[in-house]
Each structure stands twice: as C-alpha cells, then as structure tokens.
Amino acid sequence: MIIIKTAEEIERMRLSCRLAAQTLAMIEPHVQPGISTDALNGLCHQFILDHGATPSPLNYRPSAHNPQGFPKSICTSVNQQVCHGIPGPRVLREGDIINVDITVCLNGFHGDTSKTFFVGPPTARNSKIVRVAAECLLIGIQTVQPGNFFNAIGNAIEEHARKNYCSVVREYCGHGIGRSFHEEPAVLHYANRDKIAKMQPGMIFTVEPMINMGKPDIRILADHWTVVTKDHSLSAQFEHTILITPDGNEILTITDG
Ligand code: MF3
Ligand code: CO
Ligand code: CO
Questions:
Q1: Average pLDDT for residues 195-212, to the nearest whole number?
Q2: Which end of the chain has fewer CB within 10 Å, C or N?
Q3: pTM over 0.85
Q4: Distance 96 CA to ligand 3 centre (A)
Q5: Which ligand 1 atom lies nearest to the CA of residue 208?
Q6: Res 256 pLDDT > 90
Q7: What spacing in Å lies between the alpha carbon of 35 and ligand 2's midpoint?
Q8: Which residues contact 150 (CB under 8 A, 6 or more apart)?
C-alpha cells in the first residue's frame, strides 16, 4: 500500500527533507583532496544532531553479517562504488568522484537526498558520468505528476542513459519515504512495463538512479554493504525526495536559497 500523506505529514516531510538538503550543502565545501570519508561522516553526524535530528543510516537494517546494521551516519561511495559505501580512513584524491547520501529523521519523518561531487576540478574521465547521472534524475522527476504510472520514471531514465551510452543499475530502487526510511512503492529506474500503481497527490518517494559508465552489473564487497560495478567502471548517483502535488510535483530536498 502506498501511503497518501496528510497536509500535516507533508509539512513535517518538508522540514526533514530540507534538513537533509542543508546537510548536503554544508558538506559540499569540505569535499576536497586530503579529507577522509570518515571526516565527512563526522561533520554530517554532528550537523544532523545539532539540528535535532538523527542520521537514519546509523544502525540501519541489522543482519546476520552486520548485527549493528549500517555502521555510519552517511553513505560515501567513491568512483566505481555504486552506493552504500561505508565512511572510513580512505582519503579523497584529486580526480575522484564521491556520492554523499544523507538521510535524516526529524520529528519522526525521514528525508533522503544525495549528490555526486568532484574532488578537485572535473576531468575528461569523470565529468560525463556525473552529468548524465544528474540529467537522469531530473528527466525522471519530470515524469512525476498525478495520473502517470510509476514506470514512466524508469522508462525516461533508461532512455536518457542509453542515449549517452551509459547503463542503469537494476538492483536498487527509489522508494516511498515518510515515517519509515523505505516504504512502498519501489521506484524502478530502468525501463519496465509495470503499470501497477498510478501517481496520486500526497505520495512521497525518492528518485535516485545509479548510472554506470560501463555495464549495469554490480557486486557487493566483503563488508556486506559497499556496492561496486562489476567491470570497475565509474558510477554516479543523484537523489531527491519528491512530493506529488495536484498539478505536478515538488522537490522536497532543497534548501531555501
Ligand atoms: N540512503 C540510501 C537510500 O537512498 C539508503 C542507505 S541505507 C544504508 O535509500 F544503510 F546503507 F545507509
Ligand atoms: Co539516499
Ligand atoms: Co533513498
């Protein structure tokens, strides 16, 4: 069942989503050669607590392999890492790209957003994948309006990725979000014929396509979290939390400025 949020719930989602966006804006100037991903984690963790919220990834989804769940407060995914990279001692170098994925829980509601940053100036090697991933997110969001089927999102995204000779990761989806970090629906980012659910005002979900330079196939590292491209090609991702409005959509994970 896809939850339709009430006006009051939407107001609270605006606040949690704005804080997630503010956290991402706060960390951007710190993403420089020489900083460790753990230092980025520490700055975000403190910023989130200072604003009365908690970092949703911390201890998320315990399993037999990871009894503590996800061990850090943000995800940092560098170069060929697709998503769910664990912050640690790795030091960023000029020419790297890094996705920083922020999810906060404020007053019982989650907000989720991510962005891929260049470490140092963009290069000939890394600029295309970041551009295409950013375009794929916006093109996917452009299909969000009442009455459309959810498959419009993935159809538009995969078409754009293919036109640019890039591929779409299939194993991880966007998701409904609200009182839970991950709710229905699963939002596929690849072309599909699923006409199960129609978009309705008051639904809130993420769009977060992971786009690879090479093949779409992924592998999970021995830490049981970090997802990497099988062919070691670069991968980039951008994510927003979106509200369906009566006449289209509203991106909730934006700052005031
Ligand atoms: N923020 C990710 C998403 O966009 C999920 C991270 S789960 C974690 O859905 F446990 F890896 F943090
Ligand atoms: Co996220
Ligand atoms: Co998400």
A1: 97
A2: C
A3: yes
A4: 23
A5: 4
A6: no
A7: 22
A8: 185, 187, 188, 194, 196, 197, 198, 199
For the segment 88-145, what is each residue's pLDDT rounded down to a tens digit?
999 999 999 999 999 999 999 999 999 999 999 999 999 999 999 999 999 999 999 9
Split at pLDDT 50, 70, 90, the class of 196 is confident
Specify whether the CB–CB gap between 182 and 84 falls below 8 A: no
Mean pLDDT value across residues 234-249? 98
Q: Retrieve residue 43's tokens.
A: 């700055």
Task: Give me 91's structure tokens.
Answer: 């030091």
CA–CA separation, 83 vs 218, rounded Å?
A: 10
Q: What is the mean pLDDT of the chain?
A: 98
Residue 217 Cα to ligand 1 middle (Å): 19
State whether the beta carbon of 70 lies less than 6 angstroms from ligand 1: yes
Tokens of 51: 């604003």
> Nearest residue CA, atom 4 of ligand 1?
112
Is any ligand 1 atom within 6 A of the Cβ of residue 238? no
Task: Supply the residue whose CA is at minimum distance from atom 2 of ligand 1.
Answer: 101
Average pLDDT over residues 174-185: 98
| Residue to mutate (ligand 1; options 181, 184, 189; most atoms within 8 A of CB) | 181
Tokens linked to 36: 């460790």
Atom of ligand 1 nearest to the CA of 102: 1
234 lines ligand 1 (CB under 6 A): no
Answer for the pair 27, 117: CB distance below 8 angstroms, yes or no: no
Q: Which atom of ligand 1 is nearest to the CA of 74?
A: 12
Q: Does the pLDDT value for residue 257 go beyond 80? A: no
Residue 75 Cα distances to 32, 42, 90, angstroms: 17, 12, 13
